[in-house]
Amino acid sequence: xxxxxxxxxEPFASPSGGGSDANVxxxxxxxxxxxxxxxxxxxxxxxxxxxxxxxxITKLVYYLMLDL
Length: 68
What we know:
Blueprint: H1 2-6, H2 21-27, H3 51-66
């Protein structure tokens, strides 16, 4: 959560209602999370994402990787 705040994003948990490889990994004991990236109209012909959202998710992943 601190990493999200570091880049100016308020973190929150939300069910996605969809399938994910994270579900399979978690059931096998491999702790896994999904990171949302601010997509609009997901899985439609109008799907889009703002450039600043891509920049934010890139920063977040970078900061998370520094802790590995």
